[in-house]
Structure formats: structure tokens, C-alpha cells
């Protein structure tokens, strides 16, 4: 697709400019969904995401970890082929117009441990006496044969450990916000919170704990 070829060109030009310009003012890439990343981030990102293959059926496989990810955020629709693809949907809500159809989902319908195991790590389940929109969304997803689950905390940290610019080439229209992990916050004795990881421009890869009834975005893996 033209937009992804354009993004690749922007990333390449950024690398070239950083190599030759030095202390000159950097280009503002934020309007293209790109972060201002230094040379080391771009090199690391290029090497890291080289191992990710978009399969053209709504899935993306990482040959190093062996994980297969859904290419699109839950609620979005995959379109295209293995070489030309996008994640599409409606333009989003008035308050969050850039969601491209992505849905914000609750970790659990109550701020209790009703939707996660009690052992370490505390992992999202179908719920007992409560329900989990996040769990149900992945578990019921039939993309490429199904078998999906909400990505856990370490998996999301892994996915966000390098260049965001190269990440969005493999996972287009990733939302500039937090994504729920399947991992509850075991340090919270009250059982009210679970862990989420940021995929935003400003704090890519940061993590935070939020109350379980809060709605955030979800990425599925298997």
C-alpha cells in the first residue's frame, strides 16, 4: 500500500538525516504516526522487526519467539495481502477519532480477582461471577482458525521494546494508547488492578496498572 511505502521512506530518510545532519532541527514526524527516534533505535527496530512476517490472513508471525499475533487491534478489520495490508474500520469516536474501528474493552466487569487466576503470574480467565470483555474478544475470535488469547505483560513489553516506527509497519494503525495485558497486578493486595502497556508516541513501552473495569485496547496472540 502507498501509505506504508511512504512510511518506510520517511523512516529511511530519518535515518539518513540523523547520520549527516547532526545537531540540525529534526523533522516532526508525529503527523504521520511516527516517533522521533534516534539512529540506534531505528537500527535496533529494523533488526528486531525483520523477524516478523505478515502472513496476509490477519496474522503476523515472529520467527524468534514463535508467537503469532493478530495483525490488527481488536475491533479493526484486516484487509489486503501479505505485501499490501491495512487495519481498517470506522473513523472512531468523537473523543478518539484515530481508532480505525478498534474497541476499548474491560479487563473485568468488577474490580476484584474474579477474572484472573490467583497463582503467580495472575492471568486473565473467562471469569467466575463476573465477565471479561478482553478475554471473550480474543477467545471468540475466529481469525485464521482462532485459538487466540490476550497477550500477557511480558509479550507486550517484548513487542514494544524497540522502534515504534518499525512496529507500525507490521501492525498498522496501532492505537496511540494503552493496551491491556492478560496479567493482573500481583502487587495489588486488593485485586483491583491489572497491567497495561503503552503503544503511544510519547511513552512507547511504558507500563502502568489500572482498575480492571477501565476500558483499554487489546491485542491477541497465540
UniProtKB/TrEMBL annotation:
<feature type="domain" description="Lcl C-terminal">
    <location>
        <begin position="58"/>
        <end position="222"/>
    </location>
</feature>
<dbReference type="InterPro" id="IPR011460">
    <property type="entry name" value="Lcl_C"/>
</dbReference>
<dbReference type="Pfam" id="PF07603">
    <property type="entry name" value="Lcl_C"/>
</dbReference>
<protein>
    <submittedName>
        <fullName>DUF1566 domain-containing protein</fullName>
    </submittedName>
</protein>
